[in-house]
Amino acid sequence: MGNKHRVRFEPVGIEIEVDEEQNILRAAAEQGVQLMHGCKEGQCAACKSFVLEGDMDNIELDKYSTFALPDSEREEGQTLLCRAHAYEDLVIELLQYDEEIIRSGLPISKGVAEVVSNEPATHDMRHLVLKLIEPEEIKFFPGQYLDISVPNTDEHRSFSMAHVPGRDAHWEFVIKIYPDGLFSDFLASKVQVGDRLDVEGPFGTFTLRESRTSPIVFVGGGAGMAPVLGLLRAMADRGVDRKAVFYYGARAKRDLCFEEELRSLESRIPGFRYVPALSEPAGDDEWDGEVGLITDVVERCEPDLKGRDAYVCGPPPMVDAALAKLTALGVLEQNIFYDKFTTTGEPEGEDGP
Ligand SMILES: Cc1cc2nc3c(=O)[nH]c(=O)nc-3n(C[C@H](O)[C@H](O)[C@H](O)COP(=O)(O)OP(=O)(O)OC[C@H]3O[C@@H](n4cnc5c(N)ncnc54)[C@H](O)[C@@H]3O)c2cc1C
Ligand code: FES
Fold this sequence. Notes:
Blueprint: E1 4-10, E2 14-19, H1 24-30, E3 48-53, E4 59-61, H2 71-76, E5 78-80, E6 84-86, E7 90-94, H3 99-102, E8 109-120, E9 125-134, E10 145-149, E11 156-160, E12 170-176, H4 182-190, E13 196-203, E14 216-221, H5 225-238, E15 244-250, H6 259-268, E16 272-278, E17 290-291, H7 294-301, E18 309-314, H8 316-328, E19 336-340
Helix pairs in contact: 7-8
This protein binds flavin-adenine dinucleotide and FE2/S2 (inorganic) cluster.
FE2/S2 (inorganic) cluster binds near residues 37, 38 and 39.
């Protein structure tokens, strides 16, 4: 343990104590303060904040991507809370925060889970099902994610939960297999039913803002299916009757998954529609649904999105394109909630110190 310092967040006026050896985001989470974050690894910029009081030389940053924090922004006093270690008392202005969730933090727990099944969801995505062995329960909100350790390494990877709390003891994930990916390789060729994995969580702020009643547009691509499925399942279970539509982008028919369940959710959630779109249908795909990039399909089907909340999840380029399109179509920036599935293997862009 190192020395401890006080860090106050404005404009919310919350103060925490931070050990020099911990990053500020982690220290906040451990004290029940749920700050906005995504990757926790300096890549997505969701935790970017402004240092109001404190010397920048007394904030040390772990490795990060300069796409998330360009040097010019760092020089202006911005920092990434998931990478920042405080060496004096600080006052930080949160550039993004959410009144509804900042006090909703659930404790982060470490646990052990057993592999129940690992079946194909599509030709390159797996439907991994785990059973928590210990502790008995890890509380989470639908849409959050878990860190799973890669056996025999010091690495972990983040995966969004597709299941809902309390449904049954099984934890579900939808995981894309990347050639040469560390976890991908483990999942594609090494894991056995009954294997035990170290897990830690919950993390993430891609959760349903329950105090809001606006109709919702979900936009997802690839494994971004997982947390959206979690949110939709939760809406159905709890009888949430907010009007909702889910635009899901895939390349061809063989990339679609959970079709049957999504169609059945159309009858379980009043006013819910599932709209899959194929960007490159194969020659033999019999398909009379939407065709095109998911962002273009949203624009074609929804010329005016004023008054909606949007939830976006998937690979970073898709999320960035969707954020730009949704704001252009009238969704207010503060009403767009998203998770970017950034990867840890090779951070995009040059690394910071
Ligand atoms: C908040 C959050 C939630 C996430 N949830 C999910 C989820 O539910 N499902 C899921 O599948 N993933 C999810 N991810 C991504 C996941 O954590 C891993 O980063 C991803 O699965 C790759 O891990 P890997 O060990 O297989 O590959 P790595 O070993 O990390 O990467 C190895 C190589 O693969 C290449 N590679 C990795 N990703 C890509 C890519 N997108 N395109 C091209 N090449 C690539 C890299 O360049 C690298 O050279 C999430 C990420 C975050 C931050
Ligand atoms: S959570 Fe800090 S950069 Fe992603």
